[in-house]
């Protein structure tokens, strides 16, 4: 079922102006800062995609809050889990590393609890921000002071 769902998503986005990529059964729609897991056993349809693209609940996922923190760079983007930074090689590698360092310094400075990991194919460096009540309060406090 997952292969059919991925094909359906690719067909849906074919003539749309969305920048997206699929990795580890997660659909990342970069230019609207949405990420969501693709169902493995359930068949998806246009209604499923449109509902996912049009949700706007602030702490159901963190993308709206992270977007307000102004950490977005050329290779980083807000996600439902926190912040993703594309890992590039070659002459752009230093830019990716700079963005990773910038995000890490910001989170550490504000004592925001997070875990990090690479995606399975090492394309994305993920900052998975804790959604604990204490952490969400810290994020709100940082937003007030910006």
Give a quick rundown of the structure.
The protein is α+β, with helices and mostly antiparallel strands and 146 residues long. Helix content is 38%, strand content 21%.
Description:
It is a single chain. The chain is an alpha+beta fold. The chain has 5 helices and 7 strands. The N and C termini lie far apart (45 Å). A hairpin with a 4-residue loop joins strand 2 and strand 3. Helix content is 38%, strand content 21%. The chain folds into 2 domains: 2-53, no CATH class; 63-145, no CATH class. Strands 4-5-7-6 form a 4-stranded antiparallel β-sheet. A 3-stranded antiparallel β-sheet has the order 1-2-3, with no helix packed on it.
Based on DSSP secondary structure assignment, what is the total number of beta strands? Answer: 7
Shape: globular
Helical residue percent?
25-40%
The residue-averaged pLDDT reads 80
Quaternary form: single chain
Radius of gyration: 16 Å
Distance between the termini: 45 Å
- In what range is the share of β-strand residues? 15-25%
Report on the biggest sheet. 4 strands, antiparallel
**Helix-and-strand structural type:** alpha+beta
